[in-house]
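Researcher: I'm preparing a figure for a lab meeting and need a structural model of a single chain. I don't have an experimental structure, so a prediction will have to do for now. The sequence is pasted below. Please return the structure as tokens so I can convert it later.
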Amino acid sequence: MPQKLHKVKTRFAPSPTGFLHIGSARTALFNYLFAKNAEHLGGEGEMILRIEDTDKERSKKEYEDDIIEGLLWLGIGWTGDPSKKLQKKDIGDEINGDIAYQQPYRQSERTDIYKKYLAKMIADGTAYVSKEEPAEAGQRSEVIRLKNQNKKITFHDEIRGDITFDTTELGDFVIAKDPETPLYHLAVVVDDFEMGITHVIRGEDGISNTPRQILIQEAIGAKSPKYAHIPLILAPDKSKLSKRHGAMSINEYRKFGYEKEAMVNFLALMGWSPQSEEGTEKEIYDMEELIPLFDFKKVQKSAAIFNKDKLDSLQNKWFASFNPEERSVKEKGTEFIPLNEMQEKIHESIKSASGYSLKKANDAFASLVYSGGYTYTDTRDKFMSGEIDYIFREPTLDPQKIAWKETPRDKTIEYIKHIEKILATIEQFYNTPIKTALWDYAEKEGRGNILWPMRYALSGQEKSPDPFTLAEILGKEETLRRLKNAEIVLAPH
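Model: Understood. Here is the structure written out token by token.
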């Protein structure tokens, strides 16, 4: 029997001054996994969602809504204010049995609690009202400052070991503008204490906040939680992650067709390694597999690098794992976002395409997004440039490119005929059944000999999505017709 742990209580505490981006979503996921891991080991685990909206000017309801929507989509559950339930209208269709439906705590609704602590600190002499020279006319001439003990503080970081700060350089720092307006550090410390937070898991940019918060903890008689500062996420060139490199809202990734399973998998592997006991290169993990594996010892100290190719690879692998019915529902039920701006060119393309309609074009683009590792933007750009025109028009084939490397033409014709024979027997013409039906033959004759001519015959390009995806997009009849055409092009005249 595993030893029962003490209760673990973490908190995800975003500021609603922006959308839920990659870094924040990963922080939420690590907090959730650590709490759930405590349950797995026989203890108690809980993650609180707390909206830190003390910045009244920059905090917006639309950002808070985006945070909640993103967490719900990812399947990251939380507890919040037990007196307030999330309504159906607040969470749409994202209801999941693992999600707690409480409204988050909001610091803007906890002012009376902060006032009580401020009053006591002033009475105890650990804080004082400071007369200030207003920087501008009309500004307050008083603030509340912490009386700094000017000492060295050492705290243990679960990832980085012991860290020491000399707090003398901080001076008597401001903790509230006035008794009604606490600043970030005071509100955070009071909330963590009041809510019984045992572990603070946040980005390494929060390390510099820790000495101030420990001084406030000592001033109010609060026990310090344990700290774990996770590495930042950087762009591929090691610069700060920007929107150009992928720092967009989690909900934007959702709109671009990424699966939540792929996104959770991707977030978990940025800065953390599961170190599979089997010693394999396993990289596909669902939430239930991640929970028992999560451990601070496996979190790296160096910065994580955002790798979109990795995300796209995980997207492909996850989507390929869905059964044909799931895939079909996801693809055919997806509205291709840039469709309107592309309609004029689409109409030009489908004029000569037998049986094509705007809806069928939408379904084809959606299939590329779900199966080909493309985003909506990638697909739009490739279509507008003519790179994926093969969706609507049979490509012109170069006979010199159909065969794989030095494979003789007559042998390649034999391979193509056998591919046709196999495909003709498939009733559910989806990616996975197509791949399953062909794979043994490809392994036997050489993958290049089978998969290369099939892909080239369907797309007319040396670089394209895999042939199984192409066949699904084109459909059985068109796939067989294009393979037959490749035979004719290769045949001696």
